[in-house]
Amino acid sequence: MPELPEVETVRRGLQPHLEGVRLTRIALNRADLRFPFPDRMIERLTGRTIVSLTRRAKFLVAETDTGERLVMHLGMSGRFSIHEAASDAKTPGEFAHARLTDPRHDHVEFETEAGTRIVFNDPRRFGYMQMFAPDDEMFPGLGPEPLSNAFSGAVLHERLQGRKSPIKTALLDQSVVAGLGNIYVCEALFDSGISPKRLAANVGRARADRLVVAIRDVLAAAIAAGGSTLKDYANAEGGLGYFQHSFKVYGREGAPCVSCGKPVARIVQSGRSTFLCSSCQR
DNA sequence: ATGAAGGCCTGAGGGC
DNA sequence: TGCCCTCAGGCCTTCA
């Protein structure tokens, strides 16, 4: 699934097609994704203009001209694709390439006044959509945005106090810091030389400072590369990210550590794979 | 009140 | 070819 860099890449792809654009038709092709769709979702969105498309952690937020907001989460396998009216006019099949997604999993379709169709496809249906009234708080309890000024070594250090779980698990907790997933946690821990097994409470201020720098750097580099493409992820144009070629530990079990040459190890923490170099990370 | 495990879904890939 | 097993970028719920 998309972590923060992939969601940001999707946002940038969708933004020019949605911002300032009126929605003329919404279709829901089933009753639910992970959760039921919001009450009266079609009525609340049809004819509305999207005034902004922003991102909070791994959530996309589309605000309409009524102040209502549609929140979209991609789960593990959610994708958006854009089908412009102009490209539909091409000779059928002429420039066609294989569909990236199975049409059976096209669960939501948005059509805009420009004739563009924006389709949400999600085979595993771990994604979901919610709507919030203008005054509703959308993300109570969600931790700081890692690329914002609200996140710092001091903030992270404070938030890790008293935590008995390993630092790896703590970083996946969205209430500690929001937007990280398994890949970028593994990479940031490697980059900062911190063992994923170290108890969160034993990450001191110096390590927290290094960790914050590593988290910011790896997220920024991944966004610049258009995200990472593994099995399920593609950007809104159907293109692939490139950051997976830059992984230092993730998915590299047994391969030599880029720093010391010893084999990268895989362990399981809280039921999820962790990749690390036990020699470089302490 | 924490933290770990289970479960939700489908699809891909490996071993036989 | 096909079957069966394991695993997957998330996260909510349940259990210890």
TrEMBL record:
GO terms for molecular function: class I DNA-(apurinic or apyrimidinic site) endonuclease activity; oxidized purine nucleobase lesion DNA N-glycosylase activity. Keywords: DNA damage, DNA repair, DNA-binding, Glycosidase, Hydrolase, Lyase, Metal-binding, Multifunctional enzyme, Zinc, Zinc-finger. Residues 248-282 form the FPG-type domain. Residues 2-127 form the Formamidopyrimidine-DNA glycosylase catalytic domain. It catalyses: Hydrolysis of DNA containing ring-opened 7-methylguanine residues, releasing 2,6-diamino-4-hydroxy-5-(N-methyl)formamidopyrimidine; 2'-deoxyribonucleotide-(2'-deoxyribose 5'-phosphate)-2'-deoxyribonucleotide-DNA = a 3'-end 2'-deoxyribonucleotide-(2,3-dehydro-2,3-deoxyribose 5'-phosphate)-DNA + a 5'-end 5'-phospho-2'-deoxyribonucleoside-DNA + H(+). Its cofactor is Zn(2+). The keyword Protein transport does not apply. It comes from the Bacteria. Its EC number is 3.2.2.23, 4.2.99.18. The keyword Lyase applies. PANTHER family: FORMAMIDOPYRIMIDINE-DNA GLYCOSYLASE (PTHR22993). Belongs to the FPG family. Involved in base excision repair of DNA damaged by oxidation or by mutagenic agents. Acts as DNA glycosylase that recognizes and removes damaged bases. Has a preference for oxidized purines, such as 7,8-dihydro-8-oxoguanine (8-oxoG). Has AP (apurinic/apyrimidinic) lyase activity and introduces nicks in the DNA strand. Cleaves the DNA backbone by beta-delta elimination to generate a single-strand break at the site of the removed base with both 3'- and 5'-phosphates. Monomer. This is Formamidopyrimidine-DNA glycosylase. It comes from Ponticaulis profundi. The gene is mutM.
